[in-house]
Amino acid sequence: MTIEEIQEEVIEEFSDYDDWMDKYQLLIDLGSDQQPLPEKYKIESNLIDGCQSRVWLQADLTPEGLIHFQAESDALIVKGLVTLLIRVLSDHTPDEILEADIHFIEDIGLKEHLSPTRSNGLLAMLKQMKLYAMAFKAKQE
After folding, report:
1. Residue 70 has what pLDDT?
2. pLDDT of residue 117
3. Residue 71 is inside which H or E element, if any?
4. What are the Cα distances from residue 88, in Å, to 18, 42, 100?
5. Is the Cβ–Cβ distance between 32 and 78 less than 8 Å?
6. Distance between CA atoms of residues 118 and 113, nearest Å
7. Spatial distance between the Cα atoms of 61 and 3, rounded to a whole number of angstroms
8. Any catalytic annotation for residue 139?
């Protein structure tokens, strides 16, 4: 699936709910279903700056040239947010990630329903994922 197709799938999933408490519950459930990050990746260099909660993000380049992301957070909603970002961006090429127009955050209304600190954290997570894509792309050239 393309990044665009995955975003459309996420938008569809969230459109099933009108109430924001239900949408928050969906985020929490998504985070709860995520595989825990192996302890070896819970290191200082994997912590994302700009997040009020602790968020670790690990990125690896597969032999096929795809970036595989793994993450964990100590906050339930934030864990759901990073799970969504991983779902949309993981296992794509650096170019696909860098060229993607990430619009699902606004389309599902997340931007205006998150506190300013969570919103900043979400942007910091997205920025870090794009930075990993830039770094892996530079290594490939």
Report:
1. 96
2. 84
3. strand 67-73
4. 22, 22, 10
5. no
6. 10
7. 17
8. no
